[in-house]
């Protein structure tokens, strides 16, 4: 009881009525009255602490409220790839505020136009425009209506139209006008329909794959500190179409021909790039060249062709064969149109010999060449092979990394020797045109890469066969749009401000830390207002 009473007296140092404890109380009392300022200071400190804590809480609330992520503003872009064999429409989208970042543009739709490529409408150019209408309508369904007006739409035509222009400039212009009229009457922002050059086709394909593979900007990660993890290398691009093929890669060597040289400055880095487009060496035109070489094997209206499966038959004519500018320069076997039937023999070695005869590797006016007297520096780095390179290797099941050059050769050889009936029975859903040409295409790809470009058993492993990269098709269209919409800056944009999530996280972390420090300080400064029981 005495203890309690004493405690009460000490806590409230008023005049005490208990005389027997007076001495002790007097000591504490004198301490209390001797320092009245300290109590006052403590109170102020307490009040300040509370204000400080409230201020921090207010700061967090303000930060979270004020720094809300911007409502996502998605932009769209459309590119039509008017290839020699068919036209595809691609819809891309990207978040508006990130358009200068790498790898943010994504393909959201591919619409394949029914029928042939636009160059096939040379006899009725108006139909070229009509052919693409269905896909333009599809794009209208994919893109929100309020964005149609501001969505750019581009059409780029490739080697099929280059060949048509060589044959008949006026008709090529009429076909282009026809597709232009169609696109102009769409609700989108028409930005042009033109024949792109082979050099552009190579360059944009290279930009596309390196953009999608995120090879232009080093990712800031701890792993990048280790040399083996640094992602500074770009990948070369190999594009095989129906009428032309492109090879594009960074070279440290002197590029001896100006028409094969490209200089890029992208995201603060300079690139010295070699590119060449071989018109007539796309796989459909190369097949014609092979057939022309093989015409000597025609007897009694039958041409025995080693590049088709045994048992395969197809009707054709010399006029059909010679209708392309790629073959008209070759000596005609006959001037009168002759119908004949192609019959496959599936002979890999003979097919290879026929195909190799379309590559001239004996003439080179430079220090080194690929074929047909075209300069090519030494192959350098990794390569991404797409379009028909991928379709064919994927069908033959050798598009994966583990397949060696020897494996691919064996696979192609065994496919070529298979009877056509069996092949058809195994793949009833694949278009006959594609299915019947996989033997030729396999042998052609091997010859182009080995004899033409100089790949061998060692550097074969540097080639990756690419269909899609992160959901977007490997091809020239994305690079074309990125370039025309200025989405690839020459210099690295200033490092982006913290993302909303990181910003809020840091705010909360430091506020909690501050609160914690204030609490510790307060506890440190704070003197117990009461004496402990033990003192008495
Ligand atoms: O699924 C497929 N399997 C085999 N080949 C295909 C497939 N899809 C497209 N192709 C081929 O890919 C090539 C594409 O060429 P494209 O039409 O782009 O010509 P270009 O680039 O020379 O103008 C054509 O030879 C076409 O036959
Ligand atoms: Ca193409």
Automatic annotation (TrEMBL):
Annotated transmembrane regions: 44-65, 502-525
UniProt-annotated location(s): Membrane, Caveola; Membrane
Database matches in Gene3D superfamilies: 3.30.420.40, Exopolyphosphatase. Domain 2 (3.30.420.150)
Reaction equation(s) it catalyzes: a ribonucleoside 5'-triphosphate + H2O = a ribonucleoside 5'-diphosphate + phosphate + H(+); CTP + 2 H2O = CMP + 2 phosphate + 2 H(+); GDP + H2O = GMP + phosphate + H(+); UTP + 2 H2O = UMP + 2 phosphate + 2 H(+)
Keyword Disulfide bond: yes
Membrane disposition: Multi-pass membrane protein
Key words, A-Z: ATP-binding, Calcium, Disulfide bond, Glycoprotein, Hydrolase, Magnesium, Membrane, Nucleotide-binding, Transmembrane, Transmembrane helix
Enzyme Commission numbers on file: 3.6.1.5
Keyword field contains Calcium: yes
Positions contributing to ATP binding: 242-246
Cellular component terms per the entry's GO annotation: caveola
GO-annotated molecular function: apyrase activity; ATP binding; GDP phosphatase activity; ribonucleoside triphosphate phosphatase activity; UDP phosphatase activity
GO terms for biological process, alphabetical: nucleoside diphosphate catabolic process
Uppermost EC category: hydrolase
Domain of life: Eukaryota
Named cofactor requirement(s): Mg(2+); Ca(2+)
Catalytic center residues: 201
Assembly, per entry: Homodimer; disulfide-linked.
Record-stated family: Belongs to the GDA1/CD39 NTPase family.
Role, per record: Catalyzes the hydrolysis of both di- and triphosphate nucleotides (NDPs and NTPs) and hydrolyze NTPs to nucleotide monophosphates (NMPs) in two distinct successive phosphate-releasing steps, with NDPs as intermediates and participates in the regulation of extracellular levels of nucleotides. By hydrolyzing proinflammatory ATP and platelet-activating ADP to AMP, it blocks platelet aggregation and supports blood flow.
Protein name (database record): Ectonucleoside triphosphate diphosphohydrolase 1
């Amino acid at each position: 009881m005495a203890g309690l009473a004493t405690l009460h007296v000490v806590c409230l140092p008023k005049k005490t009525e208990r005389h027997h404890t007076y001495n002790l109380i007097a000591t504490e009392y004198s301490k209390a009255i001797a320092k009245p300022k300290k109590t006052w200071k403590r109170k102020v400190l307490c009040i300040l602490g509370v204000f400080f804590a409230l201020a921090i809480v207010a700061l967090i609330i303000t930060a979270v409220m004020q720094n809300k992520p911007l409502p996502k503003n998605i932009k769209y872009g459309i590119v039509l790839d008017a290839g020699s064999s068919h036209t595809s429409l691609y819809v891309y989208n990207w978040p508006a505020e990130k358009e200068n970042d790498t790898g943010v543009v994504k393909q959201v739709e591919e619409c394949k136009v029914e029928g042939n490529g636009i160059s096939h409408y040379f006899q009725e150019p108006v139909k070229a425009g009509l052919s693409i209408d269905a896909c333009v309508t599809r794009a209208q369904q994919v893109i929100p209506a309020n964005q149609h007006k501001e969505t750019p739409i581009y059409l780029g035509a490739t080697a099929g139209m280059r060949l048509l222009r060589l044959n008949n400039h006026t008709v090529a212009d009429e076909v282009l006008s026809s597709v232009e009229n169609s696109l102009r009457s769409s609700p989108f922002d028409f930005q042009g329909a033109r024949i792109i050059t082979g050099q552009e086709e190579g360059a944009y394909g290279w930009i596309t794959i390196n953009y999608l593979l995120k090879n232009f900007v080093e990712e800031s990660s701890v792993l990048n500190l280790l040399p083996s993890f640094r992602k500074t290398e770009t990948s070369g691009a190999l594009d095989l179409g129906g009428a032309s093929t492109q090879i594009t890669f960074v070279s440290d060597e002197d590029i001896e021909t100006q028409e094969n040289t490209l200089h890029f400055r992208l995201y603060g880095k300079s690139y010295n790039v070699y590119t060449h487009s071989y018109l007539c060496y796309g796989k459909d035109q190369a097949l014609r060249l092979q057939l022309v070489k093989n015409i000597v094997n025609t007897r009694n209206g039958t041409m025995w062709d080693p590049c088709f499966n045994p048992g395969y038959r197809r009707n054709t004519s010399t006029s059909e064969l010679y209708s392309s500018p790629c073959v008209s320069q070759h000596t005609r076997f006959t001037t009168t149109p002759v119908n004949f039937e192609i019959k496959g023999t599936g002979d890999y070695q003979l097919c290879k010999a026929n195909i190799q005869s379309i590559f001239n590797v004996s003439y080179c006016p430079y220090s080194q060449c690929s074929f047909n007297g075209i300069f090519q520096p030494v192959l350098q780095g990794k390569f991404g092979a797409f379009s028909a390179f991928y379709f064919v290797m994927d069908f033959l099941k050798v598009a994966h990394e583990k397949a060696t050059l020897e494996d691919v050769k064996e696979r192609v050889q065994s496919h070529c020797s298979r009877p056509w009936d069996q092949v058809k029975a195994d793949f009833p859903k694949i278009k006959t045109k594609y299915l019947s040409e996989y033997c030729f295409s396999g042998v052609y790809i091997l010859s182009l890469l080995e004899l033409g470009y100089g790949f061998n058993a060692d550097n074969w492993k540097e080639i990756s066969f690419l269909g899609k990269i992160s959901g977007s098709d490997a091809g020239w269209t994305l690079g074309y749009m990125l370039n025309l919409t200025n989405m690839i800056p020459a210099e690295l944009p200033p490092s982006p401000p913290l993302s909303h999530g990181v910003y809020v996280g840091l705010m909360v972390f430091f506020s909690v830390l501050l609160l914690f420090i204030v609490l510790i300080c307060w506890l440190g400064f704070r003197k117990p207002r009461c004496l402990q029981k033990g003192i008495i």
